[in-house]
Specification:
- This protein is an alpha+beta fold and 435 residues long.
- It has 2 domains: 205 residues, PmbA/TldD fold, CATH 3.30.2290; 224 residues, no CATH class.
- The strands form 4 sheets. The chain has a 6-stranded antiparallel beta sheet with strand order 3-2-1-4-5-6. Strands 10-9-8-13-21-20 form a 6-stranded mixed beta sheet, with helices on one face.
């Protein structure tokens, strides 16, 4: 069906513009949310939409629709919208290249997954948490399957298909008037999420966070658990965005070839990763997926680009033009970011430090300087290589670009949260302010 839609759009656009790109997105979604331990939201929907970009006289126009009876009008509207943009010779669409097949991105179990089965999975997670002695404050489950087609006037025609599943739960526990909270989630391309493990882990974290003790203000080695790490890394990774570099909003501008991170660290943007949450044959403007070494042995090797920004900078796209749906045009975004350490440190080697599970306020970090001040959440002291007392409120401050120069990987499970595929991280000389 999506090819028939594309052909209809193609017929409308041919000979009316200099170049065109047709993006069709078909998705099926099951989404559940609970308030406390009661299901309060359930949605099952199918969505089909078309986004059309055209170039005419070096101007770009865009239009979209979810009404398949208005495909012709939408295509013509995209052409009309070129009148609203400025002339820019850097506008272009993807060229034909050899496509690499991707593996383990689609789970056929989705096809037989019912809303009732999804409700039972979420309820089971809630019940396990309650049985563990916690009060559930909220939870959610989602399952989706998507198919997209990108087709353009350069004879690019690539179809992507994939599934995704996610489960999250937040809990609270009280003891002698003290309250502790915790949250965790899992996501996967496959319906292999372990709801029992997730519920038990989040409850254990809440229980461990009771009976907090103060921490003395000072400079510490800090272990960043997965959520804490990804919260701070978002500021670091934004500096690799080619548009930020081009507009002078990145501290890494003019630092290609320089050492900016621990020499034991390499970061690879890998849209071809088996089972990766952002794995696909191409990006959302049809550029064939390819790996990009952002950092190689601590040295800045590359930024990430879409076609337009790459043309502006006189380089090639890194196939990082992604979109949230057919409603938007592509924007530069990372795919699967693999953090690879040639050396790994054991938490048992830390004599005195702090472990924080998550941080509050990471969005307030300065995106250019990298300075941050965040609240440590579900934090613990590390004494003689052992995780000991939970810490009451504490602030952690530092500079993300400075701490990455000595960051180390901790011997732990490698997990994917959002685009980040990481172990727990060890950063040095962070200021911890006890309260």
């Amino acid at each position: 069906m999506i090819y028939e839609i594309a052909e209809d759009v193609k017929k409308t656009l041919e000979n009316k513009c200099d170049a065109y790109e047709i993006y069709i997105d078909e998705s099926k979604l099951i989404q559940l949310d609970s308030l406390k331990d009661e299901l309060n939201f359930a949605k099952e929907e199918i969505e089909l939409g078309v986004g059309v970009r055209v170039i005419k006289d070096h101007k770009q126009g865009f239009a979209f629709t979810s009404d398949m009876d208005k495909i012709t009008q939408t295509a013509l509207k995209a052409i009309e919208n070129t009148k609203l943009t400025k002339t820019d010779e850097n506008y272009a669409f993807a060229e034909v290249e050899k496509v690499t097949e991707v593996k383990k991105v689609y789970d056929k179990k989705f096809e037989n997954l019912s809303l009732d089965e999804s409700v039972e999975l979420l309820k089971s997670t809630i019940d396990i948490a309650i049985d563990s002695g916690c009060e559930v404050t909220g939870s959610g489950f989602s399952a989706s399957a998507g198919k997209s087609l990108i087709l353009n006037s350069n004879e690019v025609s690539i179809e992507n298909e994939g599934t995704g599943f996610g489960l999250g739960i937040s809990v609270t526990i009280q003891n002698d008037g003290e309250i502790a909270t915790a949250y965790n989630s899992q996501s996967s391309r496959f319906l292999d999420i372990d709801c029992e493990k997730l519920a038990n882990e989040v409850c254990d974290l809440a229980k461990s966070s009771l009976n907090t003790k103060p921490v003395e203000t000072g400079d510490y080695d800090v272990v960043l658990d997965y959520y804490a790490a990804t919260g701070l890394l978002s500021t670091f990774i934004s500096a690799f965005n080619g548009e930020n570099v081009m507009r002078g909003r990145s501290i890494l501008k003019d630092k290609l070839g320089q050492e900016i991170a621990n020499p034991t660290l390499s970061i690879i943007d890998n849209p071809l990763l088996e089972k990766g949450m952002y794995t696909s044959k191409c990006d959302d403007e049809g550029s064939v997926s390819k790996k990009t070494d952002l950092i190689k042995d601590g040295v800045l090797n590359s930024f990430i680009y879409d076609i337009y920004t790459a043309n502006c900078e006189g380089v090639k796209t890194t196939s990082n033009g992604l979109r949230g749906s057919y409603l938007t045009t592509p924007m530069i975004s990372p795919t699967n970011l693999e953090f690879e350490f040639s050396e790994i440190k054991d938490i048992g080697e830390i004599d005195s430090g702090v472990l924080t599970t998550s941080v509050l306020g990471a969005h307030t970090a300065n995106p250019i300087s990298g300075d941050f001040s965040v609240e440590a959440n579900n934090a613990f002291k590390i004494e003689n290589g052992e995780i000991s007392d939970p810490i009451n409120k504490a602030m952690i401050s530092g500079n993300i670009f400075e701490i990455m120069k000595s960051v180390e990987g901790i011997d732990s499970e490698i997990k994917q949260y959002g685009p980040y595929i990481i172990p727990k991280l060890l950063v040095h000389n962070l200021r911890v302010v006890g309260q």
